[in-house]
Amino acid sequence: MALRNRIAVTNAINQENVRNVKSTTATSIQTKRAALGEIGNKVNTLKGVEAKGQSLLLSKVQKKPIVNQHQKLADKVTEKPRVQIVKPVLKNLTSTTNNVISNPPQIKKEVESFSSDLLAVEDIDEEDKENPMLVSIYSNNIYAYLRTLEKQFPVEKDFLAGQEVSPKMRGVLIDWLVDVHQQFHLMQETLYLTVAIIDRFLQSYRSIDRKRLQLVGVAAMFIASKYEEMYSPDISDFVYITDNAYTKAEILQMEILIIRTLDYSLGRPLPLHFLRRYSKAGKALPLHHTMAKYFLEQCLVTYEMCHYPPSLIAAAAMYLAFFVIGTNDADENKSIWTNTLVHYSTYNKEDLIPVVRAIAGIIVNADKSKYQAVRKKYTLLKHMRISLRSELKSPTIAALGSVKLE
Questions:
Q1: Of 202, 227, 261, which residue sits at a domain end?
Q2: CA dihedral sign of residues 30, 36, 39, 44
Q3: Which residue of 118, 167, 299, 304 is surrounded by the most CB atoms within 10 Å?
Q4: What Pfam families does the database record attribute to this sequence (predicted)?
């Protein structure tokens, strides 16, 4: 009996559970089907598919307006002339396409490194456009900026007038620094920058006596080596080179004084920067370039050449090198200073002739000069023994150097 009652109770409970499950599932399935049915009907009516119970409504109400709308749109399109719609669009398109086609050449002219109206001027940066290290796009802008800097930091003529330091004392100092530069195996830019720092400092700070002049030169080379060299000499090396005439503390104090006097501005361009550009523009040989460097270093020692701008004195040295050795051009009637050199140097032949004659006078008298450091330096084989060449003693350069400048 207990077993029967338990079975009966369980059957009753199971039946109730089944009823509850059926009721819930039925209700849930009915709601889902109703919702899905509405969505499906809407989608089907939009696509033109006839659903059950709605085919009459679709045929009477919905199908006719859709056909009428398409017909109306087709009639409107056929009624309007196509010319009125197409012509303005075609004009705008042609104008925009013409502008797009005409703009690229203008953009290229602004980006290109070479811009000149002279027909005989050659683009010397054409072969360097594929090399990003040479930044040929900005080369002309860079040299234009260097010309503004040389005007911003000039060296006046006769800047030693009224000072205890004389031009002869300055010449002795620079001649000694050329030897020091050679013993330390420093870069070429370091020597040029050293002389530029000395001249600018002596021009601004006018109370240097002869006892401290060598200290100024040592401190200037110490600054220049820090500025240009990857591994600059130690300060103890400069103390040794002066035979312990100055201590480390004195060199450091002079270094601070020079930098403050120059207002920390050491960016005055060097003649060597412009000379490399002119050698490229004139297609100079290594012999021309080395001879021009010999002329420039002789000018570093000479006090009368200090006031010339670096770009001008570099152009004059390049001109004189071409004049002495001859150009690399087969046409002998062609002028030395071509239109390409005029364009890139911004100097005409008439601007260079006075400076060329001054340099020629220095070279003619180089054997008799008291300052022999540069001449001995360029007797070495690595400098092509330029100072020993017979062309430097020819009658033409002697006649050119004998002319006195006004």
A1: 261
A2: negative
A3: 299
A4: Cyclin_C (PF02984), Cyclin_N (PF00134)
